Amino acid sequence: MGKLYEELCKDYRVIEGLKTCINCGTCTAICPAAEFYRYDPRRIVDIVQSKDETEIEKLLKSDVIWYCGECMSCVTRCPRKNGPGLVIMALRNLSAKLGYFVCSEKGRQLYPLTKMLTGNILNYGYCIYPETFKWEDHPESGPVWKWHTEHLEESYKRLGANYRGDGPGVLRKIPQESLDELKAIFDVTGATERIETVNRCSEQKAKEMGLTMEEYFDKTFNECSDCHFND
Amino acid sequence: MIYQGKQKIWSEYQKEIPDDHWFYVRSCIRQNFFPASEKMFLEICRNVLGKDFYETEHHTTCGGIAYHCDTIPQETVMTIVARQFALMTEAGYSNYVASCITSFGNYIEILETWKEFPELETRIRELLWKACRREFRKPDYVAHASDLIYKYRNEIAARAKYRLVNRHTGEPLRVVEHIGCHYSKMFPSKGVGGAEYPYVLCGMIESWGGNVIDYPERRHCCGYGFRQYHVKANRGYSISNTHKKFESMEPYQPDMIITNCPGCPYFLDRWQYAISEMEGKTYSKDGYGIPVFTYEEVASLVLGYDPWDIGLQLHQVAVEPLLDKIGIEYDPARKYEGIDRKSLSRPELPGILKCC
Fold first, then answer.
1. What value does the CA radius of gyration of chain A take, rounded to a whole number of Å?
2. Among B6-10, B47-51, B163-167, B183-187, whose mean pLDDT is lowest?
3. E-only strand ranges, chain B
4. How many A-B residue pairs are in contact by the CB < 8 A criterion?
5. Looking at the complex, does the CB of residue B87 fall below 8 Å from at least one CB of chain A?
6. Which residue of A has its CA nearest to B346?
């Protein structure tokens, strides 16, 4: 048994999500990502259960493991009670841990995602927060959201939110001692180490690509090659 | 009684939902995009129905979005959730209700994983103690907030000022229901009605006078896809899935859509705007599109709350044609007001999608 497969098998999501895949392809048939991307979860699960180290390493360095939307529709429909989506999550976790994610365009998106989401959690206690959800980055949110952001405090107050206020309520200011607890949880559970790994590997990759970190963020957040899509 | 077909399946997926005394945790997405829905949930449960719902300012995100964007390890999200359970325990509650579907799925997944692997639960308890010096009891019951409105649906109907009926024709409104994927796709027995025939929103629609529409892509994901939306380069995935749903439901001419997920109403609303700008297409004959609501918004409307007090001005698809169809009274001049009737500017108009 190779090292990568062994590592994957330590992940509870693989223990739960990969029992005996019969390669029927039901997961691919139901998969929203497979309609859009050149993506076949059946094939990914088959590679993992083949225990082929070379092929697993290729997967970990590829775009394909990043196509899944983690909707978990495959879990409902698998006739053998596997969870291809769970296997994908374990593959992504290992790719991030080993720094392989920088080898693919979709994998490199882990940098902006980590910066945005873990930043929001540690700074505000929310995954999504108004200060960092800019209308300019989300034109699809429409003119009504532009209007809302222009009148942010007034609009939230009108709707009963406790935006940046003390005490409970919508978008309250989460007390500093609770944010400190989140930071302590990040430190003892490996999230802080994960952020450092993602940052370190991304900085190396940006250097290789001749980009500043700002340029690297913009490129990974905004650019999309044509090679990912179904015809 | 002998149940057959869908009735049989539904009877196997009924949940015994406790009636009262809940520890309430909020949703990151809903607080940003549907702030009044959470306000109305507590208003209806506490003030209309007289139930006990407790909230502490110390609860935080469950970390579910960061987890499903693969930015934090599984042990991190489990320990954040363990801390939420510790807050519940310290407050003296044992029924736990989440506003968010991602959170709900997250809580269920974690509890079920701990059941399978008790050594992992022990490790998370150790990590929580190390980080926060807290201990917890697992909840006796975990519900999604829509489960509660489902449970209270007939009490709401008994107090209703309006019904989901076209006042001009007397016909029930044609309603599409959309269930968030993480409500029951992972653990069907945890959702009212399971994964294939979830009944949680159907029950509300029927109780409040509407007709549920069945259509081919009813169970298809709205297209959120976590990283497939949060990274701008990936949003084609998101809009393509929403587009697929709308193309599928269009022939059935729905009057409205009701959802129970934080992201779904945002995506089903906003992508209608984006599709109209990109392709010049709207999904209603009158050019306004199909209005999309949270279940609290619909409950509030039937109870007679002012549409602008429940946040319907934050929708991009205009709600007024539907309000007119039901006969709900509203003052157009108050739509874009701030506090104390302060007049704010009006949003720009979309290029194609008609607005009021």
1. 20
2. B6-10
3. 22-25, 53-54, 95-98, 141-144, 174-178, 211-212, 256-259, 292-294
4. 270
5. no
6. A147
Alpha helices (H) along A19-139: 26-30, 32-36, 41-50, 53-60, 73-77, 84-98, 105-108, 110-124
For B209, the token pair is: 């006078």
For residues B103, B105, B106 and B109, what is the CA-based torsion angle, rounded to 10 degrees? 160
8 Å CB contact of A32 and B221: yes
| ipTM of predicted assembly, 2 dp | 0.98
Partner B contacted by A148 (CB < 8 A): yes
Sorted by sequence, the CB contacts under 8 Å of residue B47 that are 6+ apart come out as none
Tell me the longest C-alpha to C-alpha distance in chain A: 61
**Residues paired with residue B174 on neighbouring β-strands, in sequence order:** B211
Contacts A158 to B, Cβ<8 Å: 337-339
- In sequence order, the β-bridge partners of residue B176 are B257
| Assigned token pair, A179 | 């944010």
* Res. B12 pLDDT band, cuts 50 70 90: confident
B346 to chain A nearest CA, in Å? 7
Determine whether A189 is exposed, middle or buried from the number of CB atoms within 10 Å of its CB (0-12, 13-18, 19+): buried
Query: Alpha-carbon distance A33 to B238, whole Å?
Result: 9
* Residue B93: half-sphere exposure toward Cβ, Cα within 13 Å: 23
Q: Per-residue DSSP letters for B16-42?
A: ----S-EEEE--HHHHHH-HHHHHHHH
CA distances from A211 to A57, A134, A214, A226 (A): 26, 24, 8, 22
Poorest-pLDDT segment among A88-97, A212-221, B126-135, B341-350: B341-350
Note the pLDDT tens digit of each residue in B330-349.
999 999 999 999 989 999 99
What's the token pair of residue B246? 């709308």
Q: Which residues of B touch A189 (CB under 8 A)?
A: 73, 75-76, 78-79, 127, 131
Q: Which residues of A touch B234 (CB under 8 A)?
A: 106, 109, 224
> What's the mean pLDDT in A127-134?
95
Interchain pair B57, A158: CB under 8 A: no
**What's the CA gap between A67 and B262, in Å, rounded?**
22
User: Could you tell me the two tokens for A201?
Assistant: 């590997």
Residue in chain B lying closest to A115 (CA): B71
Cα B182 → chain centroid = 11
